[in-house]
Fold:
Amino acid sequence: MENYDMTPISATGSIVGEDSLGLEVASQWKLMWWKFRKHKLAMVSGALVIFFYIVALFCEFFAPNVPTTYLDIYATAPPQPIRLFYNGRWMPHVLGLKFDRDPISLRKTWVTDEEDVVPIGLFVRGDPYRLWGLIPSDIHLFGSKEPDAPFYLLGADMIGRDVFSRVIYSSRISLTVGLVGMVIALTIGILLGGISGLVGGALDNIIQRVIEILMSIPTLPVWLALAAVVPIHWPALRVYFMISIILSLVSWTGMARVVRSKFLALREEDFVRAAILDGCSQVRLIMKHMLPSFMSHIIASVTLWIPGLILGETALSFLGLGLRPPVVSWGVMLQDSQKVAVIARYPWLLAPGAAVFLVVLALNFLGDGLRDAADPY
Structure:
């Protein structure tokens, strides 16, 4: 009796291994993960984005000081670099600062005080705060071991507040504005785009004409016009949600068109026709059958969408039309650096701009990797 070799052979004549067999039976999400992890830059960017959102979530713990703490005698103090050794032994510390007057220009100049050693450590006690406004504590991840000693990792602003702590606190506002605006815009885009693609007819024409009108208007003037309507006397929380709504109201049109085009293609598919013949309601048809089939594309689009909303909030706050003090956001902080003379003298006031640059760049690289992974075949 002859023995037959049962090793699977591909169409090209090569032997199909376990990896190839796994590729054929793997789910869509597993294929996306396999493709995404090959994009090293996207992996690093994803880790960086997660880190930023963790810092934003626990900003009270990560910041050495609360954003309202100030020492006016240290106004515009320069950054204090951390030194790890003192007299040959391990002791993280910074050197204190003292100022003098330039005899000619009478400008205040800062010099390092070699005799003033400020030790720093982990899990130190400092300014009291309430985590998420609920849990009282005074423990900070790191900071000065001497409560009255100044510690300005990224320098001080014009009234002596710690720039590093304010950048960390600002991340909660600036990063969540993008998330809230994205959720609102995504909901509007999927709802109107789904109705337009699934129902069609006169309703489709009306929705598409509205989208075309909104897309023909330049985005920045619309932002400025809507933001200017927000009353100055409103409380900070109400202004925050209003800015989120403003950003989302002019950002949903692109997603609505994508969803409409996908629905027009999917409604002719056999599995959609089978669901309709089975008596499936339109809501269940959309949520259970049609949306999951291109969810990977939506996820990739969202990661590329959030940076635009973050930049929108930063621009509005920078121009004084968005969030206002005492709210701290990256755009509000950048108002201090509107003058070239200020930037030339105190370049550390541009630290919020560096944070915006890193977050937006990381989100774009992450979105690029997800976009490639969304089509794993």
